[in-house]
Design a protein that fits this description.
The protein is α+β, with helices and mostly antiparallel strands. It has two domains: about 160 residues, Immunoglobulin-like (Sandwich); about 130 residues, Glutaredoxin (3-Layer(aba) Sandwich). It is built from six helices and 20 strands. The strands form five sheets. Strands 5, 6, 7, 8, 9, 10, 11 and 12 form an eight-stranded antiparallel sheet that branches.
């Protein structure tokens, strides 16, 4: 358990919701069935975090449009990404890196029917490129090419790539953490699941029967979601918990399914020990940082087989589960 004064979880696009939007174009007309006002501005930010050099990984970006109607996500379809290296400290001339196509990943339960990027009521999500490899640690730039309302645009954002992942990554042994579960002693229900705050029952007890440590000790594959449904400002965690419940029903013999709540006490900003051991890190200046949600697949050998964050493609996760051998009863 760790307590941090004024600790802030870095959640998807949080800085974009409070910072000035980067104006890249102005337009008017129709976009995915909604009016797009004059002076609509667009901005892009990395949604994924803890990028690292030397291994293929998923890269996720979010796009927001800002106009008189407020701030809304751009969703659906696919976009092209170009990556360029800016040097170890960002002072170098950009040098060409990998390119990728990022496809739309919806928040579970939201609209995903469109084929082209648009602003659509009821849709929310991000864009994901798979198997992107960065050769060097340092500062990188992604340039995004997108067409909205018939107008092509290019957006850029910079992000860091570390020499190695700051949090557990595929190929690493999973920390044998004794996360909170239904039978944990002297623990409030809301520390097990934030949706139990205020005296409500834990809504997903089937996701709190196992600890990560117990699953590894018994050589059980585990699909583990770190997230805080009641306090997740990205609005991803609640739908993702529901989706994990569905995956557990559809693939009951492939893994045990675990939800790890982030907060032991949200008001006191006290983080659960299990979440802190996996995700809470200090930046070089001493600032605590935690990103969530994260989804991990741990193999029966206790090694991390895959991770997704902050959103996951349910079909991708289902395929990874079905690639595992059935568990023995």
């Amino acid at each position: 358990m760790r307590r941090w004064k004024r600790m802030t979880l870095r959640r998807l696009l949080l800085s974009m919701l409070v910072a000035a939007m980067v104006v890249v174009s102005c337009t008017s007309g129709q976009n995915g069935g909604e009016n797009v006002n004059v002076d609509t501005s667009y901005a892009v930010e990395m949604a994924s975090t803890w990028h690292y050099a030397g291994a293929p990984q998923r890269v996720q970006v979010g796009i927001l449009a800002s106009d008189a109607n407020g701030i809304r996500p751009v969703t659906q379809g696919a976009i092209d990404l170009e990556f360029s290296y800016l040097g170890a400290d960002g002072s170098g001339e950009p040098s060409a890196g990998p390119t990728a196509t990022a496809t739309y990943i919806p928040v579970p339960g939201t609209d995903a029917s469109g084929d082209v990027p648009a602003i659509v009521t009821g849709a929310n999500g991000i864009y994901e490129a798979d198997a992107v490899s960065f050769d060097d640690a340092g500062l990188w730039r992604t340039t995004l090419s997108i067409e909205i309302d018939g107008v092509p645009r290019r957006l850029t954002t910079d992000f860091r790539v570390d020499a190695e992942s700051g949090i557990p990554a595929p190929g690493m042994p999973a920390p044998k953490t004794e996360t909170l579960a239904l039978d944990s002693k002297n623990v409030e229900d809301e520390s097990v699941d934030s949706m139990a705050a205020g005296g409500d029952p834990i809504p997903d007890p089937e996701l709190h029967e196992w600890t990560i440590g117990a699953a590894i000790e018994q050589s059980r594959p585990a699909l583990v979601l770190f997230g805080t449904p009641a306090f997740c400002t990205s609005r991803f965690c609640g739908p993702e918990v529901t989706e994990i419940q569905r995956l557990a029903v559809d693939h009951p013999d492939r893994a045990v399914y675990i939800h790890v709540e982030i907060w032991k006490d949200y008001d006191a900003q006290t983080v659960n020990k299990g979440a802190a051991e996996w995700l809470l890190r200090e930046l070089p200046d001493g600032t605590p940082q935690m990103t969530e949600p994260w989804l991990y697949l741990i193999g029966s050998d206790g090694v991390i087989a895959d991770r997704w964050g902050p959103l996951f493609d349910s079909a991708d996760v289902a395929a990874a589960l079905e690639a595992l051998p059935p568990m023995e009863a």
